Amino acid sequence: MSLIDKLDHKRLPAHIAIIMDGNGRWAKTRGLDRSEGHKKGVEAIRRVVEAASTASIQYLTLYAFSTENWRRPSDEVNGLMDLMVYALTRETADLKKNGVRIIAIGNIERLPDYVRETLQECIQETAGGKRLTLVIALSYSSKWELTEAVKKICNDVKSGTLQEEEISEVTIDNYLSTHALPDPDLLIRTGGEQRISNFLLWQCAYTEFYFTDTFWPDFNDEELYKAILEFQKRERRYGKISEQIEYEQ
Ligand code: FPP
């Protein structure tokens, strides 16, 4: 029996975000080049997108490349860019057929032209997808995103399109690259580390965290469902007490 049959379909996380970690170590433990780990990582992405869609998850955000990842050796960075173009080109038709809409968050301007163009084509092609929104965080970091938001808010206050007294948490949400998305309900990090690595810091204020030692290339549908089952055991109190939560249900 698959773990999917154990899920409570009335209490699914609407938005799952994943820090895909451990590609390099997966390769190293097998005496392979790091690039082999990244290739296997793409296969894991395919499996997990399918599994999320099967479980009726509405939003899946994948941390594919951070602002800090630009500091990796140029061979690895170039290899990752090529791999992204390869994966996006290969998968676009299938994503479209399966109702998966791709969107991207991050400093897209910094990507090489050929990557940005492929990504934009994939975004346009899949724009009609209604089943699952797949958010790719690319050249993304939360501190970058928040800095950009602060600059735009200052500009709008200066130009008079925004009044300082009007600024609220909702205003800040609206200036982030995730403005059209609900906050993640569940954040999964693979690869054994237990940190957030500059990912969705504002948006994860009340997100449930799930850490697993499994390296990303080994992550699969059952691992995803295991994380969702764990999420379903948690009580989300948002600062309130248990009795209040029970009363509201
Ligand atoms: C983390 O493992 C993985 C990455 C930084 C890259 C993940 C990106 C891909 C697999 C390509 C994505 C493609 C698309 C289309 C979204 P690591 O290298 O940090 O592993 P380590 O911690 O073991 O060194």
Give the bound compounds: farnesyl diphosphate
- Uncertain parts: none
- CATH C-level: Alpha Beta
What is the first-to-last residue Cα distance? 30 Å
Question: How many structural domains in the coordinates?
Answer: 1
Q: Sketch the topology as an H/E string, one letter per element.
A: EHHEHEHEHHEEHH
CATH superfamily: Decaprenyl diphosphate synthase-like
Number of helices: 8
Inertia-based shape: globular
The helix-and-strand class reads alpha/beta
CATH topology: Undecaprenyl pyrophosphate synthetase
> Count of DSSP E strands?
6
Helical fraction equals 40-55%
Which key phrases capture this entry?
249 residues, alpha/beta, Undecaprenyl pyrophosphate synthetase, 6-stranded parallel β-sheet, 44% helix, 14% strand, globular, binds farnesyl diphosphate
Write the layout of secondary structure elements.
Layout: E1 15-19, H1 23-28, H2 34-54, E2 59-66, H3 74-97, E3 100-105, H4 113-125, E4 132-140, H5 142-159, H6 169-175, E5 186-189, E6 208-211, H7 221-233, H8 242-248
Parallel strand pairs: 1-2, 1-5, 2-4, 3-4, 5-6
Helix pairs in contact: 2-3, 2-7, 3-4
Residues 20-25, 38, 41-42, 45, 62, 64, 69, 80, 83-84, 87-88, 136, 191 line the site of farnesyl diphosphate.
